[in-house]
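Worked example 3. Consider a protein that binds magnesium ion.
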Amino acid sequence: MRKHIVAIDMDDTICHLVPKAIHYHNLQFPDRQLTMDQMISFDMTKIWHPECNEDLFFGRPGLYEELEIFDEHTVEEVRKIAQDHDVIIVTAARPSSVPEKWTWLQRWMPFIPFENFFVAKRKTLLNFDLLIDDGPHNLLPAKEAGRLTIGIPRPWNAPIQKQFLMRDSWQGMSELVNRLLAERSPR
Ligand SMILES: [Mg+2]
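Given these inputs, the predicted complex is written out as structure tokens:
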């Protein structure tokens, strides 16, 4: 009997990427101060400074190692989920950030083994039962494929928040995961 596979995103799901990227953008471009409220799309080309680009915003060396944990419940709740289920961490990482992301994961969640660390942009190709993610481009296809989902509410997913079960804290996440999986398909 296989365990349920629970796929968990990294950026802005278990850590805070966009706030830190905004922080460095605003230091570099003091005349264009971005705020989280403006982040209503993954296409930030129209709002960041004209001299900013993907590499500057998301590719700053060391950025992914210094990201803050999502909240004080995140580590313990992921640990609990991993005790009952097959947790895979799935991140659409740029290749240069993969070592930094693995370092971050080892620091905060050393109980996640290397073989459960997936770098993947097309997440629905993976055979997970439940996805925890903030990206509409991941939540929508997962739902269409009949997978269970829990969304993390962020400004960029505001238009789809009513269609999904959303949680803005990791408090109680393991209980919620257990309940959803039990309701769907008891094994
Ligand atoms: Mg994300």
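Take a moment to read the result before moving on. Residues 75 and 109 are 7 Å apart (CA to CA). The beta strands are 5-8, 15-16, 68-69, 86-91, 117-119, 130-133, 148-151.
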